[in-house]
């Protein structure tokens, strides 16, 4: 190999006096590029590639003028900032300087390979650890590649960096498209014999799309005599393909040999469509200001009218974060999670520690969300007055980056204000596309459209306060919070068998058992769980149970769900059987969404804002339906504890435990029964704080209960839990893998004949298997200031499938993708097609929904397989629950479009793709591993890396055999600035 010094690669220096490794190499941390000498390294730093990479790099760079580290992507804004300009003037230097390598904190060593700082005392352990060794192995091999692409000994190959075929139309690619490499010699005193020209495929592919024309034997190149190499790309599949053209030279006099390599790249697809979807601007990571301006004085804004629309009987406590915990979270520290556990969390979760445990986690979550909001600070914003609101444009609002809701508070300050000057609070009254309408107090004018403002988004604490209240205001109830088998009571006897309203339940034993168990549940029982895997009729079961309970004239039900969509489903199903005097659907006063057809009479508005009736009327409703977070309203307006005989929480697996208990703990009576329905194998609560995640805030109340023996689905079937098993949604082939992976093969495919509607279709690689994986090597990209990924190659393949399915109405097709950037690009591609009304959305938006056909675009397609911890950056790819939801939405046809090598890093995806391949559902590029080989889950990632490393080693060994070390005799004159 190039015998590169590992210490030099990792830290930029080598302290060993007797080190025999090569010390000429230079490593650019921003570009992850190895240069073989100082000359090529200097040229690289001046080049366009380095400048472009610097704009979106997260590594630290050092400013010699300010004597401080900065994130590389903020370098341009730093050198244009007032502090840097002032420091440059004081030092007598020009402001436009080049960044230097980032410097580690005192007592630390910077590991450039792993992109982190390591305490000096732990360096030896870090250097010998498996993570560092993997990175070291990769970069030592990469050194061979990077050096091999350099021109050497006056021999040059044009173009200088890579042979880029750019975008080729599929019809042209099938016929074959040829491009040229030109070999030149710049020294009149030497000539070389071309010994061999070969094509090597990429690390994960056995075949290549490229071929190279053979030269005559003993072909000689010399000064003034150009040699042309014809490289042809022939490919039947769409996507991105790459290979390496390896040219072996031999000096005709010294007989020394060396190799020069040129990567060959191509994108195959419709040229116009590709170009229409390319990034609108290079991606630039959003940056926090170097130092936030202090907030010392704030003039209050005008709150929306709904703030006073609920007649609360008492004020909700603030539950502010304790100063000690706040100071701890603000302090940078290496072992934040571990230290939080030691210093602030109790050693166990029990009745005596319950409130402390969850309050600390809620405070950690609140702090993290507030900190995350800081990156959306705006320093040069304009505010436009359009009576009666001041409108602020918020980049990323459509992506919920930041997430802004009506009623949220935003504070602003004129850009020219001095430190410590007055800020103005504006409350959000309306939201329109990418801007919000604010109402400020009388002291704010903001009528000049050219005036600029500092802007900060404030976390709305009402959610946290309600969750704190749910776990703090009332002591834990053992049969609710920590149910044991001795809390379970014998079922109540019924007079005669239950006659179901829904005749389908009569033929479904599990559904009927769940309904019967809920109806016979003695007052004051532990929570009852309806475990409803996808498509098993969970909501149908809950609706039937509520209707059966209402046979008893004393039954009063509160039904909640984490989202308005889920709550609307319950209300819409019940409205056909209850009148507006019996059923009330409460919406939060801030709600501005669409009310489902026919549901308006079951709601109430006051002054055009959703509200509640007077207390007496609220007490007469048989059923009240809210979201979980609005479930605090019934007790908050004065309904007494124990008013509800039954409380239902649907989709309980999606809510954190505090959120789930908001509609429960402050109105639960001694006789009230709680029924939870959901699936812990589907989407759980979204948690941001690593501390909160580590200690269980992401575990729903439903999931925590189901982890105990009290809720063993077999031993306690019908007592505390019933698992629904008849799947009415999906074809057996679609259900097969999630059934095996998540549900112990308990589910039965019971769908109607619609699930067979694609059997025999010419669209299927196997006409009897309605699952397709379309393997397409693509490129994930980002644009402008949006951190969301998109993949143009997958967009166009998804469009092709959508157009082939144009015979179906759009409501029969759904497209799922994990990134908003991909959602936007797919929607753009479908404009003016027969499928432009198809719902394109994230997994979260498809939870609880189904379509006859589901197309999934997985998006991520990374070439940095070895140096990147890929499994942690793949959206739902690395999240089993998101995977489960995505693949279980389809009834008759499931199509997955993605990069198989990227997906194979995850054991769930690898096994799923292998199953599809074995059943003949694979199309596109060939599978890059042996699908017949079983690998343990914890070995999948390593096996994938080993396979890729092996391909890299093969080229490294070829290069090493050609005495590549000889290239260090002369420096390279190449410059990558083109």
From TrEMBL:
Record InterPro entries: AAA+_ATPase, DNA2/NAM7-like_C, DNA2/NAM7_AAA_11, Matrin/U1-like-C_Znf_C2H2, MOV-10-like_beta-barrel, MOV-10/SDE3_DEXXQ/H-box, P-loop_NTPase, SF1_C_Upf1
Highest taxon of source: Eukaryota
One GO MF term attached to the UniProt entry: RNA binding
Protein's GO biological process: regulatory ncRNA-mediated gene silencing
EC number(s) recorded for this UniProt protein: 3.6.4.13
Chain ranges of the AAA+ ATPase domain: 524-699
Gene3D superfamilies, A to Z: P-loop containing nucleotide triphosphate hydrolases (3.40.50.300)
Subcellular location: Cytoplasm
One Pfam assignment: MOV-10_beta-barrel
Keywords on record: ATP-binding, Cytoplasm, Helicase, Hydrolase, Nucleotide-binding, RNA-mediated gene silencing
Catalytic activity: ATP + H2O = ADP + phosphate + H(+)
GO CC annotation, single: cytoplasm
U1-type domain residues: 26-57, 58-91, 106-139
Annotated family: Belongs to the DNA2/NAM7 helicase family. SDE3 subfamily.
Protein name: RNA helicase
Protein source organism: Thelephora terrestris
